[in-house]
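EI: anyone free to look at a 259-residue chain?
SC: sure, send it
EI:
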Amino acid sequence: MFIRAVPLATSIGLNAWTCMRGHLQRVLSGNLLPSEVSHLGSAYGLQPDSVHWVFRARHPDGTPQSLTRHIERTGAGQHFPALVGPIDGDLAGITCRRPSVNDDVTVLATVGPFPLPMLGQAFAECTRLLNVAVRYGKHGIVDRESLSVRIAVIEESEIGAALFHRYVATVLEESPIADLILESVQMYLARHRRVQAAADALLIHSNTLRYRLEKYTSITGADLTDTEAVIEVWWALEYWQVRRDRISQAGQLAQEAGP
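SC: here you go
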């Protein structure tokens, strides 16, 4: 929520702003009814039809003041400052403009703009996106568009597990050079199935790459010229990539509580 003031101290005042920050977790947690959020917003000068960005950010050092100040400065609107504060070890808040980061180690998930009654839902989506981004080791700004189908790779674990066992586990079980083969397939797909471009990126001869791709096809039966097969192989490799610390060399998933 925001105070209708520029600068802040000339309107409702710093005491009201401090009180407002105390409501941040309640608003973003979704524990308030939409009508309660709207009422709380109007009490601090927000228009009922105003819309805002919501974010959740994670930094290796917790919630550094430099990042807080950066978002407060860049996320403020003409009439409302940004509301930023710590939530469960992360930095979270509500801004008038799309938030940004000021370093290359923070990952910040954002959605918006959303109307006041939907801020709780928006924050839940930010939490979801942040968890996906952290699993992928992402940094910077992430949103639905940038994460795209990777959200499903993380959350649709049953599909991923089935594809993993078909397109990855068999290679891990049968080939002594499984890591090289799988790395080669990943690079081949990442380079739009261009053999020479993938070989150059891997620093190997194109014939070496062709051999590894043929070996992969012979083990899995995957036709890498078929679009549907390529989608499934990509999904399986992504599933493996973000779970490598939980998957043994033999291709068996370690016991885990979640996807």
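EI: The radius of gyration is 23 Å.
SC: 👍
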